[in-house]
Amino acid sequence: MSSLKTQGWILDLYHKDGRMVIWIKSRDGTINRLVDNWSPAFYVAGRQTDLMELARQINIEGLTLEEKYVSIDDYERSQVLRVPAETTSRALEISKLISLSARKYKLFNVDIPAEQTYLYEKDLFPLAYIEAESDHGTIKWRSLDYSGRVDYETPPLEPIDLTATTDSEWSILNFNDPLKEIRITSQGEETTLSFNEERNILELVRLLKEIDPDVVYTQNGNSFLFPYLAARAWRLGIPDQLILGRERIPLKTQSRGGRVYTSYGMVYYRPAPARLHGRIHIDREQAFLYNDCGLEGILEVSRACRIPVQRCIDSTIGTSMTSIQLYHAFKRDILAPWFKALPEELKTVEELVLADRGGLYYSPISGVYDNVGELDFSSLYPALMCKFNLSGETVKCRCCPQSRNRVPELGYNICEKRRGITPISLEEILEKRLRYKQMIEETSSPALRDTYEKRQAALKWILVTAFGYLGFKNARFGKIDAHIATCAFSRETLQKTVRIAEMMGFSLVHAIVDSVWVTKKGAEEADYLELAGRIRSELGLPISFEGIYRWIIFLPSKVRPELPAHNRYYGVFTDGRIKCRGIELRRRDAPVFIKRLQHDIISRLAEAHNSEELFRSAPTTIPIIKDYIKVLRAREVDPLHLLVQKHLSKTSSEYKKNYLHSIAAKQLSRGGMALNQGESVTFLITDEDNPIPERRVLAREFVNEDSSYDTARYEAMLLESASNILSPLGYSIKHLQRALESTDTPLHT
Description:
Layout: E1 4-16, E2 19-25, E3 31-36, E4 41-45, H1 48-58, E5 64-68, E6 78-84, H2 88-101, E7 106-108, H3 114-122, E8 129-135, E9 138-143, E10 159-166, E11 179-186, E12 189-193, H4 197-211, E13 215-218, H5 221-236, E14 259-263, E15 266-270, E16 280-283, H6 288-305, H7 309-314, H8 317-331, H9 349-355, E17 361-362, E18 367-377, H10 380-388, H11 421-442, H12 446-470, H13 480-503, E19 507-512, E20 515-519, H14 525-539, E21 543-556, E22 564-573, E23 578-581, H15 592-605, H16 611-617, H17 622-633, E24 644-647, H18 660-670, E25 680-685, E26 697-699, H19 711-726, H20 733-741
Parallel strand pairs: 10-13, 13-16
Antiparallel strand pairs: 1-2, 1-8, 2-3, 4-6, 4-7, 5-6, 8-9, 10-11, 11-12, 14-15, 17-19, 18-20, 18-21, 19-20, 21-22, 22-23, 24-25, 25-26
Helix pairs in contact: 3-8, 6-8, 6-12, 8-11, 8-12, 10-11, 10-13, 11-12, 12-13, 13-14, 15-19, 17-19
């Protein structure tokens, strides 16, 4: 049979039975399934005699000796044993046997997903436009695209929305409840399947095959919908017929097979992903990147980091960031250690005090300011890593002890002989993000502006994560000294920025790591742009002028009001834009009702053109607060707009005290929906002071439009949130109470 050529975009790929399966979407909309006879491999390092002995012991076909860099800071290649494996799980199995049998071996590239290794080896990336020539089970690839493009075309993806309801009195998700109906929305038309359970499932399979969507959107698809459908199919005796992907693989999921992990001191839970082979599944409830950046953002990260789209969706952003580092290591013949290979060096107490200080802040004096300009560095920490070559193997390298490149304050040497993995990995992403931001300003198309905004926002998350991973204990190529060095350069950068501003006649109002707020009597936009240009020229770092505030309020600490808060403020730019940080309006756990109150108050204050008008307009916010209290007391607020969200640091059974969120979690557990450590619980406060804990809250799943709520508690929350933003204008909670009582609004006490 002659070879076949296919052109199109790489939509999905996965390893199956010793072969890589790749789904290609052609320009005319057709879908092609290609198969490449390829399997992954891992590497073993050790003495040559030991490697030869190991090769005889494991006796696997295809063993070869190769030369690779076994450490990121090595300068010469070492001979290693390449061990092929049919699957990633088989590689892990063999690796564990080797590591347990002898400590004289070091293992590499063990747990890199086969799909990613394939992309690295073939120099491909998801959504790349390619030409593939398939011949007798092997594929020759020719890329017609490159990952650095910002004007790339994406394939026309056919989406559907998939939902299901159970035959239950409550909205609590329970596997024991029969399937009531399934709804599929495609191209604006909704199809409802409301037959018996078995027919519903079989009709779903038929319709998905007929519609043949590329993207399947769900709500809680990973944590409930797909595990539930799999469970019902199993009970009906038709599990092998539940095929929702393009590959004829029945849907098999685990309802409690997720992963608990910790990030910046918070515990999170990520449910086991449901895989629809050949399609893209987006669980809107769980897909963090989608909720922030949409499908465009997901595709951008997948392309830039060379990670399959589905893995990009279902993993942390750090996993994607790591992938681009692994790719660049692969291209340089550097092996990835199974476990972190660059341990932290011991430091004295004095060294720790000097080194481990984080970013620099210049605290503002809490209060109101007029005509303040804001300048922000674009991705400061990643930019510093690239500019100064900061990476795990370059900071305090062994080859350049006398290097002229030194870390400020600390004196650490920085390698002069080679570029680090971290800056190499970030350069293209930094350049692309800056280009997207320029394109946002240049384009007149709202659709393109939205696309570019989502793409740059997605890349921003990669850049934010990159800094944290330099000091992350499990990062493959991270090292705490590189993390510390980046902080030192950021402190020096901010100090130099402030000096430049003061030399140009500006006064500092506030500065926090990568942002500065300055003022100058009579300064106009051109003056601030000149300042930004001077900083950019002298420091060689990208900085942008965000605008001039008519007025801005820097808020005090909520815990210690006599002290300023570093990142709590709100203000109005001269063009009318409102910006706020650190208040309830920006918090995901605050009730919608409270957010609306703050939004309405700030919108009223935004009519003021300066601080004098601002203080005069402050009393006009009292009627707004009064109206909110009125509808609250009249019980005219939708209970769903009063829901509070809290994070669970434990499982419900591990809580000994009756916190409001633990009571709600236990309600769900009794109803058959046990939440994991790291998940969030959402609830309505019904009677906070009730002596019976069960009556204090109601979990969201049991809330309806007739649910009662604790008006006194929500009134207190409302007053607190109003005072949080109005206190610099003279309205503490006590002042608000007096002002409201003078308008015939007696308050709960």
